[in-house]
């Protein structure tokens, strides 16, 4: 069986299990379940701490895993990213009290508090900055107020927590993160079980990003209508019983669907419908 690590808690857990469910895999019903076997799909899921997943995968004990790019890089494990999943997006940045420093180049001699020691240590080394790094497990915003550090490095989403702590973001983002699928560095890239798993997840990503659009239009307006809905390879066009009319079906980006419907209607198209796509293979 394909052995897959799944986050057992935190912001990665719920969306990861939802995506796996949409991809046709069984998922646990109780948070206490640590292992779940899906015999139909020949997969065994292991629910682990997100921070540990890259380490388990790099050891070869598990074939692949879902974790955050930030956790993968911070672990220093021998694992690599093979698919971006589009959720749990975040930005990793430095923050400090206003007036302390305008950027990392001024961090020399300072202490930086973070839960991501590996990422910060490497970033400082790459920039040639001589600063100390102290590891804290969460709630790093208070480190400056308590005098543990002059600077913090942490995941920033809205920045509200930083402002409440009297801090401001400085410098460019250290990295941007999101949920990713990882495998052991050097593992065979053509493993058929892994490829099938990736195709299923890619199908979910496409299904979430597109809708199917159907509409009727006059034959003389077809070329302009098709320019609005080119589909992936080409739209499906069928003649209607009423002479001079055709039915068109095409996949369109979900984010543009309403605008496209407006443009089609203005062109004379009618019976314009959109339907959700639950699964696909491209």
TrEMBL record:
SUPFAM superfamilies named among the record's database cross-references = GlnB-like (SSF54913), Periplasmic binding protein-like II (SSF53850)
Q: What is its EC number?
A: 2.4.2.17
The domain of life is Bacteria
Q: Which residues form the ATP phosphoribosyltransferase catalytic domain?
A: 49-203
Q: Kindly list the GO molecular function terms attached to this UniProt entry.
A: ATP phosphoribosyltransferase activity
Gene3D superfamilies on file: 3.30.70.120, Periplasmic binding protein-like II
Compartments it resides in: Cytoplasm
A Pfam family assignment: HisG_C
Q: In which pathway does it act?
A: Amino-acid biosynthesis; L-histidine biosynthesis; L-histidine from 5-phospho-alpha-D-ribose 1-diphosphate: step 1/9
Q: Which cofactor does it need?
A: Mg(2+)
Note how its activity is modulated: Feedback inhibited by histidine.
Name the keywords, alphabetized: Amino-acid biosynthesis, ATP-binding, Cytoplasm, Glycosyltransferase, Histidine biosynthesis, Magnesium, Metal-binding, Nucleotide-binding, Transferase
Q: Which residues form the Histidine biosynthesis HisG C-terminal domain?
A: 207-278
- Catalytically driven reaction(s): 1-(5-phospho-beta-D-ribosyl)-ATP + diphosphate = 5-phospho-alpha-D-ribose 1-diphosphate + ATP
What the entry lists under CDD domains is as follows: PBP2_HisGL1 (cd13591)
What residue ranges carry the coiled-coil annotation?
none
- What family is reported? Belongs to the ATP phosphoribosyltransferase family. Long subfamily.
Q: Which HAMAP family match?
A: HisG_Long
Q: What does this protein do?
A: Catalyzes the condensation of ATP and 5-phosphoribose 1-diphosphate to form N'-(5'-phosphoribosyl)-ATP (PR-ATP). Has a crucial role in the pathway because the rate of histidine biosynthesis seems to be controlled primarily by regulation of HisG enzymatic activity.
Q: What is this protein called?
A: ATP phosphoribosyltransferase
Q: Which organism is it from?
A: Streptomyces pyxinae
